[in-house]
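Problem 12. The chain below contains 70 residues. Write out its predicted structure in token notation.
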Amino acid sequence: MTLRATAVDEELRCYDEYLEHARGLAPKTRNVALRIIGRLLTSRFGSDAIDIAAIKPQQVRRFFSKEAVR
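Solution.
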């Protein structure tokens, strides 16, 4: 059985590489960031293609307000 990566999975894979190689973050720190960003991307795009430019600052603020209550 082959699992197919979603657009969010692919974006998170690229972001993880960036966090590791360009920013030098430890695995645990990256995992926390990836979980949060994964929830943001999934809530904004679902299973559709990711368009980072389509994410507006107010959407990020609203998302983090909801996450803070969580």
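Discussion. The two ends are 35 Å apart (CA to CA). Students who got a different answer should revisit the alignment rule from Section 12.3.
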